[in-house]
Amino acid sequence: MRFRSVTLGIAWRTLHNFFRNPTLIVPALLFPLFFFTAFAGGLSRVSEAPGFDYAAGYTAFQFVFVLLQASAFGGVFTGFGMARDFESGFGRRMMLAAPGRTAIIAGYALSALVRAVFIWVLLTAIALATGMQVGGDAVDLVGLYALAAIVNFAAMMWAAGIALRFRSLQAGPLMQTPTFLILFTAPVYVPVDLLSGWVEAVARVNPVTAIIEEGRELIAGGGADALPAFGAAAALAVLLAGWALLGLRRAEAAGG
Amino acid sequence: MGTQVAELARRSIKRTLRQPAQVVPTITFPLFLLAINAGGLDAATNLPGFPTDSYLTFALAVTFIQSGIFAVLNGGADLARDIETGFLDRLALTPMSGLALVAGQLAGVIALGLINALVYLLVGLAAGAGFAAGLSGALVLLALAVLITFAFGCIGVFAAFKFGDGEAVQGLFPVLFVFLFLSSMALPRPLIEQDWFRTIATLNPVSYLIEGIRSLYIDGFDGEALALAFGNAAVIAVIFLLLAVTGLRGRLVRT
Lengths: 256, 255
Prior knowledge:
The complex is a heterodimer. Chain A is mainly α. Chain A has helices at residues 3-20, 22-42, 58-87, 90-97, 102-129, 138-166, 172-184, 197-205, 207-220, 227-253.
């Protein structure tokens, strides 16, 4: 089978499972919406703190974080499905059938992107309906969603690397916890300059900080210097793709 | 009755404290979130009307509620396992009363809740948080933490009898987090800007549990806040204890 047909076949199967299973689709939809509601609704007064200077408003400020968080966890949860497939022996059958096994990873990555797009549409519609201000033009918004897509890909590659090494759903916390940590040690509630203590020190060296802050600039219409953010996102994606490919070699060596 | 409760309580405490997977996350997860929020939201203390200049002091109360949420999961999952393995069926053959069974089952999570409360209190003080209520206030805090743990544990026991399935009990975790997030956990209610959010937080009993604990840290002894916290915890405990005992009777009839 050719690379393309394997990729599309796996993506189709994974998405079919996702959209047909309420226990998968309902939390995937509700969690980002809930976080958006809780953060943007409950914490909006924080934008009045001295030094908080963000023109687009707190709803847009939190929308960007929740968008990137939903993208990252969309990738991680696709990794859960991959681990389940390898645990049940389906992964072994896929590896026997696919001559170019990189296409297996590509298939899961494609499905992670499609499910992320599905969540973006819903989240964006609700954010706009609740009065989110968008100062950026079309190019800025394309940049924002491109950043989210790269984050989705990087998180999926991280989860795939774990799934292929452990080939068991029991490795789920190993996929989730570092993703949670790297996201929440970035400036979630306030700009990085208003953070304090150890969180500020970590946030300043956390690559996700540049991604989130650039996303916020893009939606506000001020994303002039996008290079550090896209550079950080691309570096993470390349590094983690290598991690996933090495995991694939491990799975091959172990016989799937 | 006392002997029955004591026997089950001993088993429940040993079982809970021997499971690192039940003990470790209940201590580390709330403290980690506390550490993130204390640094991430410290700027909120500069808002006019914010009751303290330390967000750490303000946010410490939330750790006690998170411990309660773990009590739901741990207490419920343990009982669900007893149902799945048939241990409850064997207990049903003894003359043990339903109330003794429910109370005994919760001893483990209450013991863990007490340990957690002590850890949160000491870690908070070590990290520089204030505690306005002093030593006697610490005793009140521990009493409130135990009552909250018992109340949340009753929810877990009720869920276990209702569903009879540990996975279903675990599924309550996100639901309980919704109650936590839609409360006054991050900002005092008067400072919540959105009317709809402030209304939900005002209707949410979790807000009063948090505010009762928070009052001990920030104000000392605030009779109204403490009465509302103890009252809400007691109401939750009574409602779900009665539901749990009813659920137990229904399950034993089916057995």
